[in-house]
Amino acid sequence: MKEEKDMGTGDPSFPKAIWPPKALCPSCYRSSSRTSDGALQVDWNEDEVFPFLVNYYGKTLVSSYKETYMESLQGRTQVGAALADDASSSHAARVPIGAALGVAAASCTFGALACFWRTQQKNRKYSYRLHSLKKI
């Protein structure tokens, strides 16, 4: 929000705001104050924010984040925990293996068809030139 204000790149149709607002979750805020440049500084009560998000968005959406967040809090140094931290910080989504394989197969098929089509086009162009040269 501050960056968009400073650069003048904000979209007035989609203004940025602190979320959740105090009206929706007053217990999520420990305190809030304005900085010298007018920006809102919020001290979040994280013990209240997470239950609010679970209630607001649903348990399915939040469960993946909770698992990775709890693992990072426990300080696990295993490779799996590191990968989970990377996934949560990059906003990566979990995709069913069948869907991933379907997309991969479709992508490979499309690539193969495009290559075949291009080869056919080149062959037609080449044979047309040969045919034209024979007439001369």
Automatic annotation (TrEMBL):
InterPro entries assigned to the protein according to its UniProt record, in alphabetical order: ERV/ALR_sulphydryl_oxid_sf (IPR036774), Sulfhydryl_oxidase (IPR039798)
GO molecular function: flavin-dependent sulfhydryl oxidase activity; protein disulfide isomerase activity
Gene Ontology CC terms: extracellular space; Golgi membrane
Keyword line: Membrane, Transmembrane, Transmembrane helix
The keyword Transmembrane helix is annotated on this UniProt entry: yes
Keyword S-adenosyl-L-methionine: no
TM region(s), chain numbering: 97-117
GO process terms (BP): protein folding
PANTHER family (UniProt xref): QUIESCIN Q6-RELATED SULFHYDRYL OXIDASE, SULFHYDRYL OXIDASE
Protein name according to UniProt: Sulfhydryl oxidase
